[in-house]
């Protein structure tokens, strides 16, 4: 034991020594735009004061509308035709004497184009234009015009902005940031174009005309505000006392919470472990607001999200599951082996960037690994089992290497220079404990495949493989800003929260799978609440923003579609329901269908007897006795089958609700895929944003899943009548999302009709197609040909599906020629995710 503890201390000492001896890693290189010093500052300091006084700076600002050529470099999806696109062109001129040293510095172009912004801001001061930018500011190469006595340098800057129709445009003229000053005064002329000067701050005009405003300022900031010529100010602004958006948002939130609580069921709340989990998550939730109000304490939120919550979920799974995880030594060796590979990668980074020399890393790593392995052997030698001793030695050596890499990683992380992907890797592996525990609880068992899948999903939640495989992600390249969705920056914390929301949705679906394994589930209020919650979540449309502590925070504006989905789902399930004898086996289903086909034959025969009897009795070809005899035989046969409505085609066909729901979802998804050409394929910077962007592909299939899962409860007694009721519900829900947009006066009636036609065509294509498939499936499960209920040679029999196909094909073809307005209506006012 003394030898074992001594070797363990040696291994630990080697790791501590390496950590203490590690040198700070040099920080990342400065951004390219500020890599070189400003070449004008030193030249201006060398210049004679008289030469400096001879300089003359003039600026001309031209405000115009952005043309098509100007908007070509704007990322796709960022333009909004309902808003105003503005182009601000700034033309700077600096006149200098022929002896001015700035001319030579300008000709040498020190650091251009990286220092071009510094040069312009140092001489003329930065000009800022309020409003969201459509594209990055562009600067042309400087142009020099010289004669014998003077040289003029001309700089051109272009800014693109997008404003609301009634929004004001503010221009801020900042002070030059060079010291000593390159020029003492600046002459500025503003040509507002289709704008009118509304306010001046710190400006006394020298010349004031409708089309031109000229003034001179020194080394101090000023600003002006412009108003569009077509905009008038109302004397009294009438504010709405009641906001439909807020009311609908509150109503949707309340409904979602109620259905979510009901979907858990009373028995779920009766378990103490579940109540403790809810309390723990409720205590952790407020910490997510810390980055909004106290950014300096964001580390607390990261600890809660990636340490406390995973530990809470793991503890909950350990208490709920009846058995312990079935992990063995082989699993442990695989996991530690993967950890060893990651640790070796981190140690390679430490060597490449000079944190420790290669000799020191090899020496420390060897000492730590050998001593740890020797300690494990000394501890386990008394067991006398050679495989166990070897495995413990290997595990201890791998753990020592991993601990060394982790210690050096933490040491480098203190200086904030470690690769960002390594931090994301650690956070993703920590977050992976949450889905591992959740899936284990949902499936009531620990599975190795679920663990591997959860780790993979966690890595995707923190970013796509293209982000992880970026050549500069494991170097000291210039750090870039996080990608964004609208104004929401996708930090690892935000990605983790979005991943939790996605996980909650997946757990609801898994709950439907578990509860849908029995036929009685269709009448269970818990299952119904779970299904409605899933449907409402799919129809939530996040948009807009709010202000919290002077911070613009995007929040989901809960759309009316979510409420309509709730109402239509309830309408589908709450209709009149005839008494149905549900078959338990496929044989019972076969007997019911055959009896129903026999009854249909008798009814058709009775109708045919009355139809032909009128003509044949009148013509004398059929006597009344013969007619009465045949009628009596048919009546007796019908009485034996009963006079109650035929319901064989309204049953679950002996299948479980989950089985029926999956089949209906699959068929609906296949019927919806062609319309992806209309809406476009989903996009996203990570897994959660990609899935959210692709919700439109599974909203109608979700209605199809509702159709299959609760098929016996759907209004109607036949597959096609049920499909028609589903069409009405889905159509009302889909169109509700476009109500506010279709009321826009700026959108032409042709575009509105085209959008409605697209939605109607898609809904009819999916729902009628699903009804025909269900009719065929019911007959197929009964072992009967489909032609016995639908005559493919009859025009009347094919009227409904033909109409659906014609509408779908027509609207899809029309959409191929649709303009930008229709495309924007269908996809919504989404802000393209960009890299700032």
Automatic annotation (TrEMBL):
Signal sequence range: 1-22
Entry keyword Signal: yes
Transmembrane feature ranges: 242-265, 277-294, 300-320, 332-352, 358-381, 388-410, 422-442, 449-465, 485-510, 662-682, 694-711, 723-743, 755-776, 797-818
Superkingdom to which the source organism belongs: Bacteria
Keyword tRNA-binding found: no
Keywords assigned: Membrane, Signal, Transmembrane, Transmembrane helix
Name of the molecule in the record: Uncharacterized protein
């Amino acid at each position: 034991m003394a030898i074992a503890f001594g070797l363990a201390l040696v291994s630990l000492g080697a790791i501590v020594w390496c950590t203490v001896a590690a040198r700070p890693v040099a920080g990342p290189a400065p951004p390219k735009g500020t890599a070189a010093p400003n070449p004008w500052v030193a030249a201006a300091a060398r210049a004679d004061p008289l030469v400096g006084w001879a300089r003359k700076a003039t600026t001309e600002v031209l405000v115009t509308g952005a043309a098509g050529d100007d908007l070509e470099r704007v990322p796709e999806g960022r333009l909004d035709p309902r808003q105003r696109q503005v182009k601000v062109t700034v033309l700077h001129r600096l006149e200098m004497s022929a002896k001015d040293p700035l001319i030579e510095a300008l000709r040498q172009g020190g650091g251009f184009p990286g220092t071009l912004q510094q040069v312009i801001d140092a001489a003329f001061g930065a000009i800022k234009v309020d409003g969201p930018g459509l594209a990055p500011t562009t600067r042309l190469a400087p142009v020099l015009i010289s004669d014998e006595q003077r040289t003029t340098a001309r700089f051109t800057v272009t800014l693109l902005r997008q404003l609301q129709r009634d929004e004001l445009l503010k221009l801020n003229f900042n002070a030059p940031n060079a010291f000593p000053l390159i020029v003492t005064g600046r002459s500025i002329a503003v040509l507002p174009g289709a704008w009118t000067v509304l306010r001046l701050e710190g400006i006394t005009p020298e010349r004031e005309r409708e089309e031109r405003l000229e003034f001179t300022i020194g080394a101090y900031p000023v600003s002006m505000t412009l108003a569009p010529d077509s905009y008038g100010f109302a004397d009294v602004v009438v504010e709405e006392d009641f906001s439909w958006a807020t009311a609908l948002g509150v109503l949707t939130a309340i409904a979602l919470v109620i259905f979510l609580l009901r979907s858990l069921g009373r028995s779920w709340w009766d378990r103490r472990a579940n109540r403790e989990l809810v309390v723990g998550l409720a205590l952790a939730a407020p910490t997510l607001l810390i980055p909004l109000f106290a950014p300096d304490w964001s580390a607390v939120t990261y600890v809660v999200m990636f340490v406390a919550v995973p530990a809470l979920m793991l503890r909950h799974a350990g208490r709920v599951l009846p058995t312990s995880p079935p992990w063995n030594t082989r699993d442990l060796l695989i996991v530690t082996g993967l950890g060893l590979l990651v640790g070796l990668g981190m140690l390679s980074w430490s060597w490449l960037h000079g944190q420790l020399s290669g000799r020191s890393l090899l020496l420390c790593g060897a000492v730590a690994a050998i001593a740890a392995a020797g300690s494990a052997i000394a501890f386990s030698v008394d067991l006398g089992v050679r495989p166990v001793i070897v495995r413990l030695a290997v595990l201890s050596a791998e753990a020592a290497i991993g601990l060394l890499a982790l210690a050096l990683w933490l040491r480098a992380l203190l200086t904030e220079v470690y690769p960002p992907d390594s931090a994301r890797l650690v956070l993703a592996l920590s977050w992976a404990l949450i889905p591992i525990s959740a899936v284990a609880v949902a499936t009531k068992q620990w599975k190795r495949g679920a663990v591997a899948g959860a780790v993979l999903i966690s890595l995707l939640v923190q970013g796509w493989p293209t982000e992880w495989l970026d050549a500069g992600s494991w170097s000291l390249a210039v750090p870039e800003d996080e990608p964004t969705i609208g104004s929401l920056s996708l930090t690892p914390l935000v990605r983790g929260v979005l991943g939790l929301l996605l996980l909650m949705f997946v757990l609801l679906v898994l709950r439907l799978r578990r509860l849908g394994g029995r036929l009685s589930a269709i009448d269970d209020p818990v299952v119904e609440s779970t299904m409605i919650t899933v449907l409402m979540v799919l129809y939530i449309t996040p948009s807009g923003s709010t202000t919290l502590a002077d911070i613009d925070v995007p929040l989901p504006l809960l759309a009316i579609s979510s409420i309509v989905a709730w109402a239509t789902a309830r309408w589908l399930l709450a209709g009149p329901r005839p008494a149905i004898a549900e078959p338990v086996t496929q044989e019972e289903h076969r007997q019911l269908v055959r009896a129903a086909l026999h009854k249909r034959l008798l009814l058709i025969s009775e109708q045919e007897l009355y139809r032909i009897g009128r003509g044949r009795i009148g013509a004398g070809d059929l006597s009344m006795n013969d007619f009465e005899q045949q009628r009596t035989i048919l009546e007796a046969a019908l009485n034996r089958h009963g006079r109650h409505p035929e319901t064989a085609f309204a049953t679950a066909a002996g299948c479980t609700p989950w089985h029926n729901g999956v089949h209906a979802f699959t068929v609906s998804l296949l019927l919806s895929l062609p319309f992806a050409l209309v809406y476009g394929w989903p996009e996203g910077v990570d897994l959660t944003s990609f899935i959210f962007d692709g919700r439109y592909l599974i909203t109608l299939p979700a209605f199809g899943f509702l159709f299959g899962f609760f098929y016996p409860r759907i209004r109607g007694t036949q597959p096609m009548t049920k499909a028609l009721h589903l069409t009405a519900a889905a159509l009302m829900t889909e169109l509700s999302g476009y109500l506010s947009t279709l009321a826009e006066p700026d959108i032409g009636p042709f575009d509105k009709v085209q959008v409605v036609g697209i939605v109607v065509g898609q809904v009819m294509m999916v729902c009628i197609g699903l009804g025909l498939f269900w009719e065929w499936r019911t007959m197929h499960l009964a072992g009967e040909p489909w032609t016995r209920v639908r005559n493919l040679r009859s025009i009347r029999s094919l009227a409904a599906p033909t109409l659906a196909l014609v509408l779908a094909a027509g609207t899809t073809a029309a959409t191929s020629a649709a303009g930008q307005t229709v495309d924007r209506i269908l996809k919504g006012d989404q802000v393209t995710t960009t890299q700032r």
